[in-house]
Amino acid sequence: MEKLVVFTGAGISAESGLKTFRDADGLWEGYNIEDVATPEAWRKNPELVQNFYNERREQVLKAEPNEAHKIIASLEEFFEVSVITQNIDDLHERAGSKNVVHLHGLITKSQSDKNSSLTYSIMGSNIEMGTLCELGSQLRPHVVWFGEEVPMIEEASFLCSKADVFVLVGSSLAVYPAAGLLQFVPSKTIKYIVDPKIPSVSAYQHVVKIEEKAVIGMKEVKELLLNER
Ligand code: NAD
């Protein structure tokens, strides 16, 4: 089977009711990123950061995968599909995708403040202040904050380098190192880009731009992919 790599950003979950921030007002649900999504913010005001992610988690648990997530899962019938996502929601998994690499972590899990590889599942939607990991440090959301390392980037780069077909959905390609992944996709590989505001991809060859929201755009991509077979 051909290898299909689908790289998704916050835009794919917009039609599930989860807001993106970069294409709107530069705020994430009314907050400056520096105040809620950096290690400095956590050191300065852990309660605020914990509450912010508790609210995001509650939204994620209430949201449902949309048709775009489901189309990507359905492509497993025809391709060996790997999903690489910048998203911290679990909508790809709930839509049925089996191989999902979360570059920025997964909000439905918690992690040790001392060792990011110690992760735990969360009962309900909240991590409470005072709940400790096995090393005795406060549990925090299992998300990669700005300025932190992205441990999954190596696996993601390798997957991209092997892609026979590549699809990018709903990412502004503004957050590095994730945005640099396109450089690993072989130049001969067709790259479908679905976004109502197509990001700058002038450096790449064999690009097919579909200037649509994720649901309509992914329907179009599926048709194109299956017609080409
Ligand atoms: P981003 O950089 O991936 O940009 C969002 C992109 O989505 C833009 O290019 C925009 O044009 C596009 N878009 C908007 N509506 C769309 C739609 N209906 N269909 C398809 N594309 C659409 O994302 P960001 O919001 O700047 O967030 C960056 C980081 O913040 C993420 O990588 C993630 O770690 C975190 N975040 C996660 C979620 C989530 O998990 N759902 C939501 C917001 C932010």
What keyword list fits this structure?
three-stranded antiparallel β-sheet, alpha/beta, SIR2/SIRT2 'Small Domain', 229 residues, 7 helices, six-stranded parallel β-sheet, single chain, Rossmann fold, 2 domains
Task: Tell me about this structure.
- With 229 residues, the chain is of the alpha/beta class.
- The protein folds into two domains: 136 residues, TPP-binding domain (Rossmann fold); 82 residues, SIR2/SIRT2 'Small Domain'.
- It is 28% helix and 20% strand.
- The chain is built from seven helices and nine strands.
- A hairpin with a 6-residue loop joins strand 4 and strand 5.
- The mean pLDDT is 95.
- Bound molecules: nicotinamide-adenine-dinucleotide.
- The site of nicotinamide-adenine-dinucleotide (NAD) has 28 residues, from loops.
